[in-house]
Amino acid sequence: MSFPLHRPRRLRRTEKLRNLVREREINTAGFIYPMFVCPGTKVRKEVSSMPGIHQQSADQIVEECREVEALGIPGIILFGLPETKDPRGSSSLNADGVVPKAIEAIRKTKLKLLVITDVCLCEYTDHGHCGVIEDGEIANDHTLEILAEQALTHARAGADIVAPSDMMDGRVGAIRAALDQAGFLDVQIMAYAAKYASAFYGPFRDAIGSAKALTGDKRTYQMDSANSDEALREVELDIAEGADMVMVKPGMPYLDVVRRVKEAFGMPTFAYQVSGEYSMIMAAAQNGWLDGEKAMMESLIAFKRAGACGVLTYFAPRVAEILRRSPP
Q1: How far is CA 297 from the centre of its chain?
Q2: Is 304 designated active site?
């Protein structure tokens, strides 16, 4: 035989054939949209390094949440920008703080969105680190006490899911114990289980106002980008401590980790397409260097192909609009 029997191109000849044999599909069901809550009313300020993403007061958050729900996006995750910051992130425990107010405002509108909250200190400390600093080092166990109370503050306000992103040892267990003891048995934990010390967080730090304040780096508690075996150990610990869902962060540079986590544990596994990933695509598109819409869609299907059941992405509303116009 002068030519192979199988001709794979047969299945690529037309759009209908390509759709028929497509292995993965993007849909809104697995999207979580990150949002930044700030003090005040009628505040909507674009983040300079994240085109199209805004710092917003609770009233504006609610208005965008109406649009998010209408687009079929099931959930949001809230990050807080407090009025004041201190070395211990004390404002993260304020029941009248920006995140609890936003949760309560969303609940009053009867929106059916899943409300997830980031549980961490980096938004609330004046030094920008994710934990309390004592004697020049991040104090793991003292930080756990604050994180557990922060999670309780969010649960009392009406959060469905709390998402600890600090990477302190034992934080999932401490939060689960605090929630259960207070009667919040149904509040779930989405653990940032494999979170890497990454250069891709720069625009996020602009968004929360910690970029200039941050001293040093976070390599003593966030993971080394060279390690994937370690990621499995971290995920296993979080599951053992009571995590309901696990997350890999950042996303695209760590697709191999997403795949390994899903195959090893079979847990609901999420990836966070972080600020730097978003901003790179947006900047390249604005400069005409690539087709932004196609790059956005291609980046998201990569998460599904790697095994993620959901993606935290700043692109969520844009993609939902595209899917509504041209469903797959």
Answers
A1: 18
A2: no
Report if pTM > 0.90: yes
6, part of any domain: no
Task: Measure the CA–CA gap between 239 and 245, rounded to whole angstroms.
Answer: 8
Average pLDDT over residues 209-217: 79
User: Under DSSP, is residue 96 helix (H, G, I), strand (E, B) or coil?
Assistant: coil
CA distances from 315 to 32, 186, 318, 322 (A): 10, 29, 5, 11
What's the pLDDT score for residue 46? 97
In this predicted structure, what is the pLDDT of residue 153? 98
Which entry of 101, 195, 218, 262 is annotated as an active-site residue? Answer: 195
Q: Is 195 a catalytic residue?
A: yes
- Report if residue 5 sits inside a domain: no
The tally of domains found in the chain comes to 1
In a domain, 43, yes or no: yes
In this structure, is residue 47 part of a structural domain? yes
Q: Which residues are 137's β-sheet partners? A: 134
Report the alpha-carbon distance of residue 26 to residue 30 in Å, rounded.
Answer: 9
Confidence of residue 2 (pLDDT cuts 50, 70, 90): low
- Return mean pLDDT, the chain: 95
Question: CA-to-CA distance for 186 and 184, rounded, in angstroms?
Answer: 6
Euclidean distance between CA atoms 187 and 155, whole angstroms: 7
Strand-pair category, 161-164 with 188-195: parallel
92-129 pLDDT, tens digit each: 999 999 999 999 999 999 999 999 999 999 999 999 99
Domain span including residue 46: 26-325
How many other C-beta atoms are found inside a 10 Å radius of the C-beta of residue 325? 7
- Which of 85, 249, 262, 304 does the annotation list as catalytic? 249
Phi-psi region of 108 (alpha: psi -120 to 50; beta: other; left: phi over 0): alpha
Give the CATH number of the domain where residue 253 resides.
3.20.20.70
Strand segments, DSSP code E, in 74-203 are 75-80, 114-119, 133-134, 137-138, 161-164, 188-195
Whether residue 80 contacts residue 92, with contact meaning beta carbons closer than 8 Å, is answered with yes
